[in-house]
Amino acid sequence: MGLPTSFGKFLEYVADKAAEFDTSVRKHINTELIEKESLWNGWFAPTKNSEFSVNAGKSIDLWVSQYSAQTFEQQQTLQRHYVNILEEETVNLEQLRSLTQYGIPQKIRAPIWQLSIGYLPLRKSERKATLNKRRKKYWDLVEQLYPKAEAEQSDPLLMQIAVDVLRTFPTGLEKLFERQPVKNMLTRILYIYSVKHQRTNYWQGLNELPIPFIANFFSFYVGCTLEQLNQISLVSVEQILKSGTIEADVYGCLIRFVNSLQRSGDYVIEKYGTISPGALLDRLFLLSKMVNTELHENLQEKNVEYVHFAFRWMVCMLIREIPISTVVRLWDNYLSEGESMLSFHLYTTCSFLQTFTEDIIKLPSFDQTLVFVQNLPTDNWNELHAEYLIKRAYQIKIVDAAYRKSAAGLATVFVVALVAAMTLVAYQRCLEAPHSPRSA
């Protein structure tokens, strides 16, 4: 079809072009998924009718059971690659982030997170002095800003934080976070951060964001697994935290982590605590509709709005929804994404929702569905479940990128067609207008 010759033809032209773009995009997505199939062990293979499908395939439990046998050899290979990168005088951040998307061995996860987020300098020669300076700066802030014992009960910010800290029990690390020294540490970190970086504004859910850093750094400095952290005695916890190293490092990483979330303006909590869920939840709404129309329409029919369950997923970065070992593995990939971390979290939450498609569709009512999506059955999840979410998230990233590209192309076609139609109409009016007599 050529360019339109009237506004009626213009609308028909745009509709035809939109259909062409949709078909083209779906073929492109299908091709990319096929190319990724061998890398991802064939999961979520495209359907036979050339339509992409990121919600069809193995259940998460089946996938995890079949994936388990591959992990030991993979971890050994990864560790050798990491050691080679870390031995360089200056770490190549691009290479490091490229590797971290495949997971990080727990023994070296803490320094790699610190490098990835920009807390630990890339140059070896600068690390000791920089860390000492940053740790001292944090404890100077504690001395200057943290309320003295006699003023604690009259500080509304501290009281608000204390309420949230009391109910902070991440799945898999409940016993560690019952320890009073850990609660005290978390309270100080949140208070200093809120005063220094958020103009004394604190939001519910901020208490969750330091948890992965606390777990990771504790595990690294003690030399144990995440699962073993619950077995550390109160006396040992006090001794471990006495130097203040873990606390200062968690604070430094929290600053950079939240900054990266808020930088684009799309995070559900803007700078200084303003709640703004629209942009991110709208993107989740559209993504879910693209990758799994059946589930999306089922939620709409039951009047279950995404804000009812996904707002917490966005604020807390899924920490409230899954065990800490799963969260930590997810965050390997989050930190590898750099400036795109928030977008990858969006793909992961979409992946998370799609995982429970069959369960959600079977539920007949609004109440039953809402209770289920707000308390999804993940207590027994581990790092391998994170692998499943990550690989599905990368597929959703392909879908999102393809549709964004097609939208830009369609917008160009729309503008060109509109200009052509307007020019033609103006020309026709000019021809139809009565001519005035020429002046003598």
Notable characteristics:
single chain, 440 residues, mainly alpha, 20 helices
Structure, briefly:
The protein has 440 residues and is an all-alpha fold. It is built from 20 helices and no strands. Helix content is 67%, strand content 0%.
Could you characterize what this model shows?
This protein is an all-alpha fold and 440 residues long. The chain has a domain at 124-262. 67% of the residues lie in helices and 0% in strands. The chain has helices spanning 7-37, 60-67, 71-86, 93-100, 106-117, 124-145, 156-166, 174-178, 180-197, 211-222, 234-241, 245-262, 278-291, 293-301, 307-315, 324-336, 341-354, 357-362, 366-374, 383-432. The chain starts with 6 loop residues before the first helix and ends in an 8-residue tail after the last helix.
